[in-house]
Amino acid sequence: MELIQTVYYDELVERCKKGDTSSYRDLYNKYAKAMYNTSLRIVNNTAEAEDILQEAFIDAFKHIGNFEGRSSFGAWLKRIVVNKSINSIKRKKINVLDIDTVHTDLSDDEPINEMEFEFKVDEVKKAINELPAGYRTVLSLYLLEDYSHEEVATTLNISHSTARTQYMRAKQKLLQQLKSRVEV
Questions:
Q1: Cα–Cα distances in Å, from 173 out to 75, 80, 128, 153, 178?
Q2: Which of 6, 7, 79, 146 is deepest in the core (most CB within 10 A)?
Q3: What is the CATH number of the domain that holds 105?
Q4: Model confidence over 11-53: pLDDT tens digits?
Q5: How many of the other CB atoms lie within 10 Å of CB of 184?
Q6: Is residue 28 domain-shared with residue 46, that is, in the same domain?
Q7: Do residues 119 and 38 share a domain?
């Protein structure tokens, strides 16, 4: 079944390249919700995520002739959405701290018991949204968008060690927030 869907969406992309407007609508309907959620996890603002979604689809459809199919259309579109979301954050002057310029006592070997508590999904979502923008972005890209540390570093234009440290700090801060909710 998955192969049939893949072939169908590949055909939609080809029809879009030929200007078939109903295929544009079908692709939009297929990917809009997931791309909106991707952007929302990064920018943490519904109106901004909606704007980014629209801009991403406009750019994708404008440049669909450049889509070569080396990855799925969804992966290509997600890259556009993530880049636009990150650029939006950068425009707001919210920067990820470059850890190479700061001394840290954190080590990759420090154990964090991630399963220590059970949390409700809403509590976790709220805690993620309360993280500083840089932490939230790194955590979202790594955990929710399945980027590697190298991809996070490249996307955010930071060093690999900064990406790893920001991820560790985000994870620790998230766990602290969740633990404090349980203690209250």
A1: 30, 29, 9, 20, 9
A2: 79
A3: 1.10.10.10
A4: 888 998 898 889 899 999 999 999 999 999 888 899 999 999 9
A5: 5
A6: yes
A7: no
Q: Is the distance from CB of 27 to CB of 72 less than 8 angstroms?
A: no
Same domain, 82 and 127: no
- Residue identified by tokens 């955990």 is 143
Please report where in the chains the tokens 């979502």 appear, as a residue.
125
Residues 8 and 87 both lie in one domain: yes
**Structural domain span for residue 151:** 99-183
Are residue 56 and residue 8 in the same domain, yes or no?
yes
Give the pair of three-digit tokens for residue 113: 């018991």
Residue 97 has pLDDT above 50, yes or no: no
Q: What is the radius of gyration, based on Cα positions, of the chain?
A: 19
Cα–Cα distance between 17 and 43 in angstroms, integer? 30
Residue 63 has a pLDDT of 92
Is the same domain home to 132 and 150?
A: yes
Residue keyed to tokens 């991403």: 56
Rounded Cα gap, residues 182 and 176, in angstroms: 10
Most confident of the ranges 5-9, 70-74, 105-109, 117-121: 70-74
